[in-house]
Specification:
With 236 residues, the chain is an alpha+beta fold. It has two domains: 4-157, no CATH class; 171-236, Arc Repressor Mutant, subunit A. The protein has helices at residues 4-7, 17-20, 26-33, 37-44, 68-82, 87-101, 110-127, 130-133, 147-153, 197-205, 210-217, 221-234, and strands at 22-24, 66-67, 136-139, 142-145, 156-158, 164-168, 177-179, 189-190. A hairpin with a 5-residue loop joins strand 5 and strand 6.
Length: 236
């Protein structure tokens, strides 16, 4: 099966800011994705010589190492985990998708959204892999990702080149929080008002009221409260 991506470019440019510039530390990425840091670390820097399934630069002190593409990859894997795929089946799923879709950074590719369910379904059926089969369903004769995975993938915006260009984070109820490498240096941003999440949280930690923060940044107060709630729950 030849996808649009396979017929065109199969690799994102190495100088593209989505892969060339680190944005998050592993801890920061884990917090925003609602993952244990140890889980993300095992995906980005696996032990025993295994290849990473999340793009990450070598550690350099406390500096950021996860580029936007790596964040998008981890975001998709977080969806797989929430769909009930055990840790030991994550890597086989990525390997199947990478080889079946045939593009670099397959988890961050639009081809995952359009063709990934069929690739995984066929593999799971041929290998009798019930754990990976649970990621997909058949509806009206079409193979689709399970609902929780579809919900995650719908929050990804893809660029004209077919790779992720923006992710809307799922942890927030009222606030629309996005990660876009071309806005706010790639740090999480509240759509209404355009404030960085870390700026809102810093003001709250410093003792400012939700009302004052909302007025100063032009973010609706219920959304400021939502941002603070998620940050407090995550322990940031």
């Amino acid at each position: 099966m030849a996808t649009d991506r396979q017929r065109g470019s199969t690799a994102i440019r190495t100088d593209d800011s989505r892969v060339a510039r680190p944005v998050f530390t592993l801890r920061e990425a884990a917090v925003y994705l609602g993952l244990p840091k140890s889980t993300l670390h095992s995906w980005a820097r696996p032990a025993g010589g295994a290849l990473p399934v999340v793009t990450c630069f070598p550690p350099h002190g406390r500096e950021a190492t996860v580029p936007f593409i790596g964040f998008a990859e981890a975001y998709v894997l977080a969806a797989f985990r929430r769909a009930g795929v055990p840790m030991q089946r994550i890597r086989p799923a990525v390997e199947v998708l990478s080889s079946g879709i045939g593009v670099e950074h397959a988890l961050a590719s639009k081809s995952l959204y359009t063709d990934g369910a069929e690739v995984l379904y066929d593999y799971a059926a041929s290998e009798h892999d019930e754990e990976l089969r649970g990621l997909t369903v058949v509806r009206t004769g079409q193979r689709q990702f399970a609902e929780i995975v579809r919900d995650y993938l719908k929050r990804i915006t893809y660029g004209d080149d077919g790779w992720a260009s923006q992710v809307r984070l799922p942890a927030y109820g009222r606030a629309q929080v996005i990660v876009n490498p071309r806005r706010a240096f790639g740090l999480p941003l509240v759509v209404h008002g355009g404030a960085r999440v870390e700026d809102l949280v810093d003001r709250f930690v410093a003792g400012d009221t939700l009302a004052d923060i909302a007025e100063d940044f032009g973010v609706p107060e219920p959304e400021v409260e939502d941002v603070v709630r998620v940050a407090t729950r995550a322990g940031t």
